[in-house]
Specification:
The complex is a heterotrimer of chains A (about 400), B (about 170) and C (about 210).
Chain A: H1 2-6, H2 8-17, H3 22-59, H4 75-85, H5 96-112, H6 131-152, H7 156-187, H8 192-199, E1 202-203, E2 206-207, H9 214-230, H10 256-280, H11 296-317, H12 323-351, H13 356-376
Antiparallel strand pairs in A: 1-2
Helix pairs in contact in A: 2-3, 3-10, 3-11, 4-10, 5-6, 5-10, 6-7, 7-9, 7-12, 9-10, 9-12, 10-11, 12-13
Chain B: H1 2-21, H2 25-45, H3 49-73, H4 89-113, H5 125-133, H6 137-158
Helix pairs in contact in B: 1-2, 2-3
Chain C: H1 4-22, E1 47-51, H2 56-59, H3 67-71, E2 77-81, E3 86-87, E4 93-94, E5 97-103, H4 112-116, E6 122-124, E7 140-141, H5 143-146, E8 147-149, H6 150-156, H7 158-205
Parallel strand pairs in C: 1-8
Antiparallel strand pairs in C: 1-6, 2-5, 3-4, 5-7
Helix pairs in contact in C: 6-7
The chains are: A mainly alpha (about 400), B mainly alpha (about 170), C alpha+beta (about 210).
């Protein structure tokens, strides 16, 4: 019974597959999974948009939207209808083909990332051996779509926003990869299913999630910072800062294309939350060994929604970082710490089992954190202004 | 299987041709990205997962952006006044034909040397890692030094010289 | 510098989030059309004409002196006088306005008309939900729309209204006292005249 509840979607998929001839069964199975992903994650997107607006409102001492349905539940429906029926304005001097392709490319690439996430026991769409690399390859391609959007609008503010966004995303890509690399190093495989399997073991009732190790905790914090920057989310949302550049690189988009960008951003946020849950929070494994009777996919989606809530919480709390502060933070603080984290993870493996390695690794990380904070985040002393003229 | 190969090859060649024939330089860069993607899909079709995804991650995710930045930050986006064909086009054509001949000879000779393999060798990421850290560790370190020196060089070139400008 | 500011900020936002469900201090929104904040007493929006008693025409305090029309800076008041007279609160016959229009799309709520009115006839109302779909005459208020009772005045500006009532009652008492004194002197003079004629008549007889 518990087995069935856990595997209910897999069983449903096999049941539908059984209606088709054996030659087509594999294709039908894959199609069902793809359709399921395409239906579930935009629904989660609608829920997280609503959560964000109401959550931000409550944090800011006000109600969120509460007129449309009871407690404002139908607000995403209203938003969707609005963006579908708005006039699609394309500036005359804009580059038509690229302007059209940018949101399409973004949405395609962002949805591809879901193909390797293990959403439950046996619930990965494609269990690739190099699954993590695939995910990051898709993440890197989103930068190109941001650039395409900004450039094709023929609007210098859009272009400025796009440049800033791309610079930010590239800067935080390296710490993101390094933070995830630690997990790969300790697991010995880039296969996301294997990573979850390794974390699915329990000692004294507590799971072996990587976040409970010193290097895993540091890597989780670095990963969280890097993904907040990668999805252009507050406090790193200068490129789309509403009070700075109107809407940054998607200023010239209206109607459904804007909705597609919005969808792409939030679906991207959901997918990196899913990856974070997989890498550090144990994917679909339960937090305590006596809770393993709860279906695995409930744990996965619960962790994803928890990450979304933390994203919303950060957005409601922190002021926006300026572009140079953001870049300084990336190159002078996050990157050295992630490199050190790799070294500490190696040390962890080298020191062998026991309590010594907990103390040593935690001590190194804490000392490094405070030292880097003091040194790397020093305020620059400004000298007299120098000019450099174009030749 | 060969249908898939021809389809992907057509996309790659179309992208590469568009990259040299289009007028707008940024369009050329985006067409080059399509060529990169085609190459990545070829790698994946040959079951070289690491190579394929690394191609997407590095080429599309970084090199294409670099090319586009280079176009935008210089004046490459303006169409040149004097036309794009140079005067010494005949010499260029001959040299290109010679290079193509050398490459073609190398490729064709190599397949005739190796025995025909119908089964693709399964190379996992673990094997690549072992090879890089074992047999090919010296090339790895040399490439790392090269990249570091390129990075330092880029920073030095881009940095404002202190006190040189008033 | 070490991130404790971020943690403190997160704690504060979390406190706001949780507190907004339990305490009114953390959720100060007034959901507008269903709930309204009460207005303070000194609030003012557009003028209205005060009338005493039940009949707005008979009890209208305005005597069409046209001082407010002349003092109004954007000239939004238009008054037409009557030809007949009716008694005011002291009993004295006064003319009244047959037409008193205020264009509230022009009125700038400066309260000058209230300050210069010698008869406490025009006061500031606090009503602000005045939007209308009739863009030609909808914001031009005539005498009937502007007339509101003294009880309404008491409700919106209680202290002011009681003050005004006290002042008017005082003047009315003074006027009555004067009238009584005048009546008494007149009666005394009449009585004296009557006794004078009686004695005069008596003298003639004798």
């Amino acid at each position: 019974m518990i087995e069935n509840a856990d595997q209910i979607f897999v069983l449903l998929q096999h049941w539908v597959m059984s209606f088709f001839p054996p030659a087509l069964q594999h294709v039908v199975g894959v199609l069902i999974s793809v359709v399921a992903i395409i239906c579930v994650f935009p629904a989660l997107f609608a829920i997280s948009v609503l959560l964000e607006r109401k959550g931000l409102g409550r944090m800011q001492n006000r109600y969120g939207p509460n007129r449309v349905g009871p407690l404002g539940i139908l607000q995403p429906v209203a938003d969707g209808l609005k963006s579908l029926t708005k006039e699609d304005i394309v500036p005359t001097s804009a580059d038509g083909v690229v302007h059209f392709l940018a949101p399409v490319f973004l949405v395609v690439v962002v949805f591809m990332g879901y193909a390797v996430l293990p959403m439950g026991r046996n619930m990965t769409l494609v269990n690739l051996d190099a699954g993590l690399l695939f995910f990051f390859a898709m993440g890197a391609s989103t930068e190109l779509s941001v650039f395409m959007a900004g450039w094709s609008s023929r609007n210098k503010y859009s272009l400025l926003g796009a440049m800033r966004a791309v610079a930010q995303m590239i800067s935080y890509e390296v710490p993101l990869l390094l933070a995830s690399l630690v997990v790969v190093m300790m697991t010995g495989s880039m296969n996301l299913g294997r990573i979850v399997d390794v974390q699915n073991q329990y000692t004294w009732g507590l799971p072996h999630w990587y976040i409970f190790t010193p290097w895993g905790f540091a890597a989780f914090l670095l990963y969280a910072t890097a993904t907040t920057a990668e999805s252009n989310r507050s406090p790193f949302d200068l490129p789309e800062g509403e009070s700075e550049l109107v809407a940054g690189y998607f200023t010239e988009y209206s109607g459904f294309k804007f909705a597609l960008f919005f969808l792409g951003e939030y679906v991207g946020m959901l997918s990196v939350s899913g990856l974070g849950a997989t890498l550090f929070l144990g994917g679909w494994s339960a937090p305590f060994s006596f809770l393993t009777w709860v279906p695995s996919w409930i744990w996965f989606f619960g962790k994803v929604m928890l990450s979304i809530c933390v994203f919303i919480w950060l957005r409601g709390t922190l002021p926006r970082l300026r572009q140079d502060q953001l870049m300084n933070f990336a190159w002078k603080f996050v990157l050295p710490l992630s490199l050190l984290n790799l070294f500490v993870a190696g040390l962890w493996r080298f020191l062998g089992e026991g309590f010594a390695r907990w103390g040593v690794c935690s001590a190194i990380l804490l000392v490094a954190y405070f030292a880097m904070a003091k040194v790397g985040m020093r305020k620059e002393s400004f000298g007299p202004r120098s000019y450099r003229y174009a030749e | 299987m060969t249908i898939v190969f021809y389809l992907i090859a057509a996309i790659t060649v179309a992208g590469a041709l568009a990259a040299v024939l289009l007028k707008n330089t940024v369009h050329c860069a985006l067409a080059l990205t399509v060529a990169f993607a085609g190459l990545a899909i070829q790698f994946l079709e040959l079951d070289a997962q690491f190579a394929g995804f690394a191609q997407i991650l590095v080429y599309i995710g970084a090199v294409a952006i670099l090319v586009v930045f280079a176009i935008l930050l210089t004046r490459g986006s303006e169409t040149p006044k004097g036309g794009v064909f140079s005067k010494s086009w005949l010499a260029g054509l001959i040299i290109a034909a010679m290079v193509f001949a050398v490459l073609g000879w190398a490729v064709l000779n190599s397949t005739s040397v190796l025995p025909n393999e119908t089964a693709k060798p399964a190379v996992s990421v673990l094997d690549i890692g072992n090879a890089l850290m074992g047999r090919y560790v010296l090339p790895l370190e040399i490439v790392a030094v090269l990249l570091t020196s390129a990075l330092i060089g880029a920073v030095i070139v881009a940095k404002h010289e202190k006190g040189s400008a008033k | 510098m070490f991130g404790e500011g971020i943690l403190k900020g997160l704690a504060e936002t979390a406190r706001n989030f949780g507190g907004s469900f339990v305490s009114a201090e953390r959720l100060t929104t007034v959901q507008y059309p269903e709930e309204r904040l009460p207005q303070i007493e000194a609030a003012r929006n557009f003028p209205f004409l005060v009338y005493d008693g039940a009949d707005w025409e008979a009890g209208l305090r305005c005597v069409a002196c046209q001082i407010c029309e002349k003092e109004c800076p954007p000239k939004c008041i238009y008054i037409e006088k009557s030809v007949d007279k009716k008694p005011d609160y002291t009993g004295k016959p006064q003319i009244y306005p047959t037409r008193f229009d205020i264009d509230i799309s022009v009125c700038m709520s400066c309260q000058i008309c209230v300050e210069v009115c010698p008869f406490e006839a025009i006061k500031m109302d606090t009503e602000f939900e005045l939007s209308t779909t009739d863009r030609f005459g909808g914001l031009l208020y005539d005498r009937k729309e502007l007339a509101k009772s003294n009880e309404h005045y008491h409700k919106i500006h209680p202290t002011e209204a009681t003050e005004v009532d006290a002042r008017l009652a005082e003047e009315k008492a003074k006027a009555e006292a004067k009238a009584k004194a005048a009546a008494e002197t007149a009666a005394a003079k009449a009585a004296a005249a009557a006794t004078a004629t009686k004695t005069a008549g008596g003298e003639l007889k004798a």
